[in-house]
Amino acid sequence: MAVLILAEIESTDTWFSILIAQLKKEQPNLDLRIWPEYGKPEEIEIVLVSWQPLGTIPKFPNLKLIMSLAAGVDRILADPDLPDNIPIVRLVSESQTWQMAEYVTMAVLLFQRRLLEYQELQRSRRWEELAVQDASSFTVGILGLGHLGLMVAKKLALIGFPVRGWSRTPKAVAGVECFHGDEQFQLFLKKCQAIVCLLPLTPQTEGILCHESFSALPPGAYLINVGRGKHLVEADLLSALDSGQIAGVCLDVFDTEPLPIDHPFWFDPRIIVTPHIAAPGRPDEIAGVILDTINCSQMGRPLKYEIDRHWGY
Ligand code: NDP
Ligand code: OXD
Is 228 among the residues known to form the active site? Predict the structure, then answer.
């Protein structure tokens, strides 16, 4: 039984070198192969997918498990030739969840404490005091109350922000005002001074951050997108920024990654750009998660975190 890592790994990539070293340390007899050196295709039973050229996964006739090295499985499901009888497991990692909570908390605090405006003032060396809006009157809405959204919601509520959450199915979370379904989306948005997109990318959620959603927010709201670039309609964001409907944005994910060198987002002082680094997770911890999943698969035990292909997450 061989396990293949499907990823584009640069020689300087420390995340993958730590992951591979840890996998080998914890399970020295694991037959681990790294794309493109996969040997005989019939020997590959498990693929660990970070990236895959379309048509790669169907090459392996004895595949038993597809494990995503990301929480989002949209890129795996995008392969039209994906075999439909093989389980797909997504990544759930404690370190990733904590990192996401840190990143979103940082962005929310930055907007609530008006750091974008202070940066503008700094550029013109103006010593000016802006009014402070208390966290207790700055409502944050989380789109997606899954593994990551739920932790983010709880952390923000602990700091003192009123938190709203929106999911597909109904939820009850202490300290979080919960909404669900398309019919409650506008109502959910109505009071959010900031929204955080932590949805998976599916046909239902693609383009959800658009003119219609921005218009439902209070004027001068903020956006944090850590889901996927295709959640956002970029032209609608630029218009909403120009009209003042959106006051500032923090983007970690983009329709095209890396963000093209001449993309307008790079030059806009109202937009914070980070290169998809919100929550990579700690590779030494993730190695343990991978080995547990491989062992469950090998022993025929139920797989935790298998995705539902119908819903796409
Ligand atoms: P989960 O699958 O655990 O949760 C997804 C949440 O979205 C659930 O609450 C689900 O509702 C909700 N949802 C799905 N579809 C809809 C819909 N049509 N309408 C309303 N709500 C919907 O995902 P995670 O929390 O683990 O991760 C979320 C996403 O974050 C990932 O898919 C990935 O794209 C992104 N991500 C980004 C990272 C980064 O570094 N920038 C790192 C990791 C993840 P319900 O609970 O009812 O099912
Ligand atoms: C992701 C991840 O889904 O890094 O973006 O896990």
Answer: yes
Cα 149 to ligand 1 centroid, rounded to whole Å = 7
pLDDT digits (tens, 9 = 90+) for 135-175: 999 999 999 999 999 999 999 999 999 999 999 999 999 99
Can 263 be counted among the known catalytic residues? Answer: no
Atom of ligand 1 nearest to the CA of 252: 41
Task: State pLDDT tens for residues 27-53.
Answer: 999 999 999 999 999 999 999 999 988
Q: Do residues 101 and 133 make contact, with C-beta atoms less than 8 angstroms apart?
A: no
Torsional class of 246: left (φ above 0), alpha (ψ -120 to 50), beta (otherwise) = beta
**Atom 48 of ligand 1, residue of closest alpha carbon:** 168
Rounded to an integer, what distance in angstroms lies between the CA atom of residue 57 and that of residue 61? 9
**Domains with residue ranges and CATH for the chain:** 2-92+281-299 (3.40.50.720), 94-273 (3.40.50.720)
pTM of the predicted model as reported, rounded to 2 decimal places:
0.98
